[in-house]
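Q: A reviewer asked whether we had any structural model of the full assembly, not just the individual parts. We don't, so I'm hoping you can provide one. Inputs are below.
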Amino acid sequence: MRIERIELQVIRLRLQEPFRISSGQTHERRILLLKVEGEGARGYGECVADETPHYSYETVQTARWVLEQHLIPAALAREFASASEFAALLAAAARGHPMAKAALEMAVWDLEARRRGVSLAALLGGSKQAVEAGVSLGIREEVEELLERIGRFWAEGYRRVKLKIAPGRDVGVLESVRSRFPDLPLMVDANAAYTPAELEHVARLDAFGLMMIEQPFAADELLAHAELQARLATPVCLDESITSPATCALAIRLGSCRTVNIKAGRVGGHAASLEIHDLCARAGVPVWCGGMLESGIGRAHNVALASLPNFRLPGDTSASRRYWARDVVRPEFELQPDGTLAVPAGPGIGVEVDEGFLKTLEVAKASFRRG
Ligand code: OSB
Ligand code: MG
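A: Here is a predicted structure for the entire assembly that you could use as a starting point for your response.
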C-alpha cells in the first residue's frame, strides 16, 4: 500500500457536560483527527490524547509534533503490504507515543477496509453485529445528582454503570449508590488515584459487589495491583497500565488483573489491540472496550474492535448523544432498546464523516504529500 496524502486537523468540540476524573476535568475537547488518502480510497483516524498530560504523558501537542516530524514523513516515504504491517513501520519511526501512532495506524486500517469494500469490523476479524454499551460517569459534588443520573442512564438501557472514584469520594458514594440501586451492574475507575500504601482502604471496595475495580494504582505499579488482586474477590481491571501487548502479558503473568480495558488509541492502534485481545483470550481473561470521550470517528473504530469475540463485557462505548449535542459522523451512534450499539456494516468505519461540520469546528490544519 502507498499513502499519497495525509491531512491533520484539530477540532474543538464541547461535551454536553463537564467530565471529571480523579486527575482532572474536561469540558471542551480539542481532538486531533487524521485523514489518509491513497490507493483510490481514504481513511480516518482520531487521536485520543487530551490537551493536558493527566491521563497519559501524551497530549494533542506532543502527538502533533511526533506525527508531523516523524510518523507522517515515514508513512509517506515508504510502502507496506497491509494495515497489519503498518504498525511495524511506525514502531521503527519513533519510540513510545502510542496515541500519536494509533491515530495514523487506525486511519490506515479504515483505508484498507474501504479499499477492499469490507467493514473495518470484518477486516479486524469481528463477528458481532452489536456491542454491549455501558456508561462512564464522572465525579460529582452532589451524590443526589449522581444517583439521579445513574437512574436515568439505567432506564435508557445501558448495560452497566461505571463510576469515577478518588480518595474521599469512594466508600461513602458507593454506600449511597448501593442503597438506592442494590442490583445495578456497577464498577468503579480510580484512574490511578491511590498509592499502594492505601491497599487496605481500596480493599474495602470488595464489599460492594462490583463487576471490577479499574486502575486503582499508578500505571507501573503492576506488583501492587497483583497484591491487591490476591486480597480481593472483585476482579481488578487495568487501563493505564496496559500500554502494549508485552505489558499486558506481564500483568496477566503477575496476576495484576483479571480483566483488561483495551483502548486501541492507547496501545498504538488496532494491530496491538488484536494482539492483546488474542493473548487475553488464550489466558482466559475477558476484555472490554474503553473510551476516551471520542468523537464519532474514534467511536466507530472502537465499536468495530469491540465486535471481536473476547470483548465479553459491556464497554465505555456509549451513544453519540451521551457526549455531544451533534456528532461528526452520520448516522450518529444510538443506543438500541437492548442496550447495544449496532456495528456499522458499510465499508471501513461504516459511518460518513461530516466534513462540512468538521470545518466549522476546525482550529488547526496541515497537509502533507508524498515527496
Ligand atoms: O479511564 O476510562 C478512562 C475518559 C477520559 C479519560 C479516561 C477515561 C475516560 C472514561 C470515559 O472513563 C469513557 C468514555 O465514555 O469515553
Ligand atoms: Mg479507565
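A: Points you may want to mention in the reply: The chain is about 40% helix and 20% strand. Residues 189, 191, 214-215, 239, 261, 290 surround magnesium ion (ligand 2) (CB under 6 Å).
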